[in-house]
Amino acid sequence: MTAPPAPSSAPLSGMLVADLSRVLAGPYATMLLADLGADVVKVEHPERGDDTRAWGPPWAGDQSAYYLALNRGKRSLAVDLKDPDGLAAVRTLCARADVVVQNFRPGTAERLGLGYADVAADNPGVVYCSISGFGPGHLRPDRPGFDVVIQGESGLMSTTGTPEGGPTKIGIPLADVLTGLNATTAVCAALVRRATTGRGEHIHVSLLNSALSALVQVGQSALVTGAEPERVGHAHPSIVPYQTFPTADGDIIIAAGNDALYRALCTVVERPDLAEDPRFRRNADRVAHRDILVAELTAALAKRSAEEWTALLSDAGVPVGKVRGVAEALRTADASGDEATMTVDHPVLGAVELIRPGFRFTGAAPQHGPAVLPPPLLGQHSVEVLRELGLSEERITALVERGTVVQHPVH
């Protein structure tokens, strides 16, 4: 199967990924694999496609922002898996793929003949990643695993919010994103091992395990103490000051993670007495007298703007930042030269701005900017992919004519 051209320096250049996933965790993982240079073929339902195609508003033209966020760098094969010929084409795709990623409900892939055992029988070196909500070993593994459910079940929600308020959902689907990152990490590790051993791998990644592993020090505190961690809102349970503060015109975050940084903070805010006060000299003292110190610092910080304090504290080496809105954060990063966004040439929408991946390469980068395939239209590459799989023109025409395969008219 001939992949579209990718920079030869891209780490996964030449790798073929069969993306049988939908919604967020799986598509996020396969998008990252595409960012690393892989040829990702997104298999979609011929009528509705990925669920997120309908998850609007907001919309960019007739494309949902949700779908655009998760599917750059891919090609779309819209095919009905209930049709034996359509299913056979996808089986051929999986037999030739280096990586298969799926998040069907438990048992569905096996019923379709697309489970690991079926794919590995024809493709023993395949790296096969199964993504689920709760994992195969969990009681009731067939439970649907939506992000908000996992945030509650994992304890993430209980750690988020203020002491006086109830558990709060994190503003982004963090369990899904973490699962996508874990899947990408595991897939890349399996590909490295396969390069020396020739062995394939069946990887299981669940939203619940991804969220539980992300509890890090908060989870460890619960194990050490046997008690439920308390919600601390914008503050930190073990470090003071390490929280948001209001200024004359907006909020800033100060993270004085050690005694030296705290003393530097006191100098900048012109309160050297707070550094010498025995109640605040050491971090443990500051934690014990948190409310008193925070009140003193809040009064001092109210005298200047967020921009002024950010500059002054940064010059002094104190970790500080403004609390920004999402659009402001992206524009600020772009203006600083960080290139947080990129523009792709969409076949219907024209120039579309997308958020770049979180990694950068010092050498020639993998796909970036205009070279990146835009999030595909439903079935945009169906005929192209089927030709690469070796189907005859007559067979492809028959599949399209009976609706088993949908080919978007944009070429």
UniProtKB/TrEMBL annotation:
The keyword Transferase belongs to this UniProt entry's keyword annotation: yes
Keywords: Transferase
GO terms for MF: CoA-transferase activity
Transferase listed as a keyword: yes
N-terminal signal peptide: none
Name of this protein: CaiB/BaiF family protein
